[in-house]
Design a protein that fits this description.
- This protein is an alpha/beta fold and 371 residues long.
- It folds into 2 domains: 134 residues, Rossmann fold (3-Layer(aba) Sandwich); 150 residues, NAD(P)-binding Rossmann-like Domain (Rossmann fold).
- The chain has a 7-stranded parallel sheet with strand order 8-7-6-9-10-11-12, sandwiched between helices. Strands 2-1-3-4-5-13 form a 6-stranded mixed sheet, covered by helices on one side.
- α5 links the parallel β4 and β5.
- α1 packs across α13, α2 packs parallel to α13 and α3 packs parallel to α4.
- The longest helix is centred in the C-terminal third of the chain and has 19 residues.
- The chain is elongated, with a radius of gyration of 23 Å.
- The two termini are 29 Å apart.
Length: 371
């Protein structure tokens, strides 16, 4: 475990460090007087955190344009216009990278760097097609992404969301602010504690392990997990037992979802899963909204089939304020902030920038998605 933490810290340092070795200028004053028109063109779909922009600016390797806002995503029409002829693209999870966009970009596009660990916004099939079409002239589009550097922040937020939901902190805050705080009552706002509980993890990876590590000091009795196959190496780190999906549902006092969104996991948390859970169970999702069938979750929460749910992700995002889930006191909804710490978001943007520069040089990316 110590080795794993050291490796993660090293990756975070590498992600933030500028890739000076990539600079043709060698960092010499005045060497960036090269004709800008000869540099690879990059479009950045969002005002990414400063570490990433700094790396790209100081590299002397690219010329870039960006959608200079962090509040509003780039309009699709403008995005399709801006990507025409670019050599590389930095995107975030709000942009759909599909056939339409790849066609608009044209054959120059060879590197795609997403500032995210999830890649459900990327049409992998279309990217694979582009590789096949370009095999005769180049290696096709390479894709960089940003896993691992956000493990700690996502795990921390998951624990915070779990405790807020299970101990009804949002409800309690509302009562205190709106005059509901009367005399002390024996069962008012009672919730569920972690001590002697069974915690289930759907999709055991680095984040699932990190969540369990943080929950263990709360005297959790047992960790269980399910995945596409047993993961004994990771499971041994937290002494977790592999179980079936049905067993995960029926045994878990707290069920936290950590799996990626894929065609196989879409709506995997549905009526069938919720019907097998205890009526005292707490359901937590900090992965992707698409893994949950939200109408089924609403029914499970409103009927008392499960005790509560904490969601950092929904479909769509943002979730309309008129959505029925917002009417439930036993559902805590956050605006997709699991990785929202200053250090993590800067590390993600830096890793995305370094992935892009390495990809343009034809060198191995720090974190590359194998298509």
């Amino acid at each position: 475990m110590w080795c794993g933490r050291v490796a993660l810290r090293r990756l975070q340092r590498i992600a933030v460090a500028p890739l000076n070795s990539l600079s043709i200028t060698g960092g010499l004053p005045g060497a960036v007087q090269r004709e800008m028109s000869s540099l690879p063109r990059v479009y950045i779909t969002r005002q990414i955190p400063p570490e990433g922009l700094k790396i790209l600016s100081e590299s002397g390797q690219v010329q870039f344009d960006l959608w200079d806002s962090d509040d509003v995503p780039v309009p699709r029409k403008e995005l399709l216009q801006k990507v025409k002829g670019v050599d590389a693209l930095v995107c975030v999870l709000t942009e759909k990278i599909d056939a339409e966009l790849l066609d608009a970009a044209g054959p120059n596009l060879r590197v795609l760097s997403t500032m995210s660990v999830g890649f459900d916004h990327l049409s992998l099939e279309e990217l694979k097609k582009s590789i096949l079409l370009q095999l005769c002239v180049c290696v096709g589009i390479r894709v960089g992404y940003t896993p691992d550097v956000l493990t700690d922040s996502v795990a921390e937020l998951t624990v915070a969301l779990l405790l807020s939901t299970s101990r009804r902190l949002i409800e309690a805050t509302h009562e205190a602010k709106t005059g509901g705080w009367g005399t002390w009552r024996t069962l008012w706002l009672c919730g569920y504690e972690l001590a002697n509980s069974t915690v289930g993890i759907l999709g055991l990876g680095r984040i699932g392990v990190a969540i369990a590590e943080r929950l263990k000091p709360f005297k959790v009795k047992k960790f269980i997990y399910t995945d596409v196959a047993p993961r004994p190496e990771l499971a041994s780190l937290i002494d977790a037992e592999y179980v079936s999906m049905d067993e995960l549902a029926s045994q878990s006092d707290f069920l936290t979802v950590c799996c990626a969104l894929t065609p196989e996991t879409k709506d995997i948390c549905n009526k069938d899963l919720f019907s097998k859970m205890k009526n005292t169970s707490i359901f937590i999702n900090t992965s992707r909204g698409g893994v949950v069938h939200q109408e089924d979750l609403y029914e499970a929460l409103s009927s008392g089939q499960i005790a509560g749910a904490g969601l950092d992700v929904t479909v769509p995002e943002p979730l309309p304020i008129s959505h029925p889930l917002f009417t439930l006191n036993n559902c805590v909804i956050l605006p997709h902030i699991a990785s929202a710490s200053y250090s993590t978001r800067n590390a993600m943007s830096a890793l995305a920038a370094n992935n892009l520069l390495l990809g343009l040089k034809g060198q191995p990316m720090i974190k590359e998605l194998k298509l």
